[in-house]
Structure formats: C-alpha cells, structure tokens
Write a sequence for this structure.
C-alpha cells in the first residue's frame, strides 16, 4: 500500500489541508508553512522506445552526442524490467527506456500510444510531504510510490489525470538528481545547449494546466505552466497522440532555430 492509499494518512492530510484553507493559506503556502516556497523543477524527460539502439542513434545524429549507457552488469533498472540510456543537455536529461520483458507497463504504453513516444516528465520536489498532502486533499491518486528508490523518494502521478506521467523525486542531495547529471560521464551535445520546455497533449489543456500549477507549484499562463526555468505547454491532442509529444531544444547554432526533428514520435523543436 502506498502512503497515498493509507486511509489514516489521507484523513490526516485532508484535515491539515482543510485547516489551512480555513485560515486562508494557498496551496503553495501549505507546502512550506511560513518558509519561502520552493516551486518544483523539471529535471528530465523520458522517451519509451522499442528499439533502444536505433532511437539512441537518431538522437546522436540530431544532437551530435553519444547517449550514455549504464555500466554492463550494473544496470539498476534491469530489476524493474527495462534498460535505459541518458543524454545530458545543459542541466537537463533526456532518458531513453526500453523494456526487456513482455509483461511491462512500457509494453502497455506502446499499445496505447501506437508505438514509441514521450513517456514521462521527471520533476523534483523540495517538500515531498507537502506534495503528498496536496495530492490527498485534491484526491489525486499516485500510480505508485517508492519511499526509498536508490536513496530517493519516488512518486508517480496517474497519467490519465495530467496527460502524461509526472514522476516526482525528493532528491538527496538535492543538487545532483537521478542520472548524476553534474558528475556523470556525459559529453555536451554540439547541437543544443539546453532544454527549455516540453509539450503535453491532453483534453482540456487549460484546466489541466491549472491543476498542474496548483498541485506541482508552478506559474500558470493560459494552458502553459512554468516551473522556475522550464515550461510545460498543455495542448489539444492531434489525432491519437497523447502525453509528452514535443521537447524544446535551445540551439547552439542560432540558424537552426525553427528546425523540427521527429524521433520516436516526439517532435524535437530547435528554438
């Protein structure tokens, strides 16, 4: 049973949220009490691919950088049924995941998505207790929770609510998150210096943006939400596409601004 499913915990958190509302506290104030509120941060983007090597090859050609594989024989994700490779872009990561067994949620994703696609937005919370309190008060269930995933607190929200999987971590230490981007053996892409944001296709995008802004502590502008230095644009779906459908790359060569490249059914837009 997850913390979010614990009846006693849910009751306690709802009472706490109700008390805060009664005295006029907004959700962000509830998150940090009397201290300064720290909004959530976007830390990396996950793409699900049936053919890991082929997708990484396409990303390599687009970004001009070699994706980093985990050390052979020491891949922590194997126990969870998938392989992964990472690309660092500025202080953000692109992760490519591929299942190694037939009965896996990634296989279900491929069926639902109709193939490869953007699977997840990974974010950092500085106050996991407050995040869970807001979720309980709003009756937003977690897809799952792992209190100690390699030393980090992992919480994943139901993609049917927010359009894509928003996976949160309370990182320790907080300045070097999952994937070890600050000290890992990464090379910098020659084509892009940063990722400025992404697009999530979902019905009722403005309403979902409002929910995400309140729940995840971001700043809403119409159907867009800014989390400190990254933006998530919620948009109407086109065809069957749902979820993480585009990623915005800050081009090193300004002449590439406006260029679009499709990899694994995700549109990479150079800005």
């Amino acid at each position: 049973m997850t913390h979010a499913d614990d009846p006693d915990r849910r009751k306690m958190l709802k009472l706490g949220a109700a008390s805060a509302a009664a005295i006029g506290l907004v959700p962000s104030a509830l998150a940090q009490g009397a201290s300064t509120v720290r909004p959530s941060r976007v830390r990396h983007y996950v793409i699900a691919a049936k053919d890991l090597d082929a997708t990484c090859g396409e990303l390599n050609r687009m970004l001009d950088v070699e994706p980093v594989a985990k050390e052979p024989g020491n891949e922590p994700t194997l126990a969870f049924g998938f392989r992964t490779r990472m690309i660092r872009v500025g202080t953000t990561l692109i992760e490519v995941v591929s299942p190694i067994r037939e009965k896996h949620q990634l296989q279900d994703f491929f069926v639902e998505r109709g193939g490869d696609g953007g699977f997840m937005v990974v974010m950092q919370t500085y106050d996991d207790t407050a995040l869970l309190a807001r979720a309980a008060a709003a009756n937003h269930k977690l897809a799952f929770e792992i209190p100690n995933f390699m030393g980090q607190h992992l919480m994943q929200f139901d993609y049917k609510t927010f359009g894509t999987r928003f996976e949160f971590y309370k990182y320790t230490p907080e300045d070097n998150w999952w994937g070890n981007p600050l000290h890992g053996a990464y090379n910098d892409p020659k084509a892009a210096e940063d990722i400025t944001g992404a697009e999530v296709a979902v019905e009722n995008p403005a309403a979902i943006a409002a929910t995400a802004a309140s729940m995840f502590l971001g700043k809403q502008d119409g159907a867009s939400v800014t989390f400190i230095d990254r933006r998530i644009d919620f948009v109407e779906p086109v065809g069957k596409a749902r979820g993480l459908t585009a990623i915005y790359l800050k081009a090193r060569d300004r002449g590439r601004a406006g260029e679009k490249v499709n990899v694994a059914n995700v549109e990479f837009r150079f800005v």
In short: Residues 1-34 have pLDDT under 50 and may be disordered.
